[in-house]
Amino acid sequence: MIAKTENIKNEYKNVWVVAEQLSGVIQQVTMELIGAARPLANDRNSEVWVFAAGPNMKSLAEELFAYGADKVIVVDDERLLNFNDELEANVLGRLIEKYKPEIVICGATTRGRALIPRVAVTKICGLTADCTELSIDPENGDLLQTRPAFGGNIMATIRCSNHRPQMATVRPRVMKVPEPDTSRSGEIISESIEAADTEGVKKILEVFHSKENTVNLADAQIIISGGRGMKGPKGFDLLKKLAAKVEGAVGASRAAVDAGWIAYNHQVGQTGQTVQTKVYMSCGISGQIQHLVGMQSSDLIIAIDKDPNTPLMQMADIAIEGDLFEILPKLLEEIPKL
Amino acid sequence: MKIVVCIKQVPATTDAKIDPVTKRIIREGVKAELNPFDTYAVEEAVKLRKRFGGEVVTLSMGPPSAVNSLRETVSVGADKAILLSDRALGGSDTWATSYALSKAIDKIGDVDLVLCGKQAVDGDTAQVGPGIAAHLNWMQATYVNSVDDVTEKSLKVKRMHEDGYDICELQLPAVITVVKGINIPRVPTLRGRLASEGEEIPTWSATDIGADPEKIGLMASPTRVVKTNPPPARQSSTIKINGSPEKCAKDLVRELRLRSIL
Predict the structure, then answer these.
(1) Predicted ipTM?
(2) Which of A123, A232, B96, B179 is found 20 to 30 A from B252 (Cα to Cα)?
(3) Is A265 part of the contact surface with chain B (CB cutoff 8 Å)?
(4) pTM for the full predicted model
């Protein structure tokens, strides 16, 4: 809501984390968010609350306390098992009105990015997408939200002074998971779905979760990525073997995807996925700007190419000049010896 | 079936400039293109019209030059295009933008379906699609990669998630945002291009759509960009490895061990 006076702002207190669950299991991004929320709540002299919607959430509250939650709002309901934008937005929006949190953060996942804009619009709140840094302005207590913009070419810091709560989605794998402390405890607040929440809500007909059939580039610690230099689908078999060995995922440039060598869900870059991994190993990718913006924030960038002058070889932390069809098989031999 | 496709004209390169005073993108004078993800939304709308009949209207909020991207949508099959352009709308964040677009959709009237690309490549927020749905209080589905079983009252979509997908049924009217894999956008034919040249594209103002002046533009936007910085610099030196394939592989493994990665 619009909060132009200090009196209205002071009605809003605490930092909320919107938990993400999949088949009733709390996802790691939730722990990361609790870790990010803790210092914000400390600075604001307030508490970390987790909004947990789904079946049997009550039994998972202890785990959330251990990671740093002070209170957990539990909406234990089978109807919240699968992600339903309208239903979850209605419930969350209603509880935001009831408890008036000052800050609400949520994972910048496909689900979070669908849910939170719906809540922010109906509750007239500012919302910043895909934040990589959150802090409290010591001058006035506002939340400072930093996010990459223009494909990571600039970092923009955004504030939302005249509306409460302040809302943000946070990129997975950016914030650190705090050390759990099993001696911590907290308070469970039980809430339920009300009749009005279920109006105008979609029907979920089928759900498929599969680690095998999907490519979770966002969660991978190591991505082995191939481009035009892989010469065809067979080249990608080599990358898949290597990725399997290091428990990584296979990525691809747009050129390789458009050539039909590998499916689109592997594509990294502006029209694919933006990744921020520990290790990004590029094989035969020249490095168009549209690709670079999708991976340049990775911790360690390795490039293998015959041509040492490509943009990717120039920007890499480790650049290996040579024939990848000779080097990759050797690498496959070397790695298991460890 | 009346379909509105919301499109955005974006800077064609990623080296767009920022206005030092407003901290907003300078769109004037920069080479521009239709947001790549929106091309899939336009194609899907045209395909749906072919199967189920009706009309495809493309809608864009932006500077007068955005008419070029709207013209492009007409060249690939949109029946009509509307530009929403007004100084009063300048500086809108995703809240105010989705409000203005929802008012324009109201004015178009009798809309069954709104399609958007999953996000624009300049802002990357993915917030405007769900924002429009929220302003209109319609159902929504994001990251959709197929649309099926379309009836007058409902349709089914397949939504992509990081860990799989689901299939859901939406009551119409609804808002859908689409991913790249949903189709292969057609290339405009010469005839299409020529036809689009002559297309009259009306410009609507904030008053035309009946927008509440308290809800549009920079002043009504809850978020404010307070500063922009270059991203943290990468380490400048590159470790170069070359020689025989065995040496390359061994050297790399050693580097990875040094960093405790292996």
Answers:
(1) 0.89
(2) A232
(3) yes
(4) 0.88
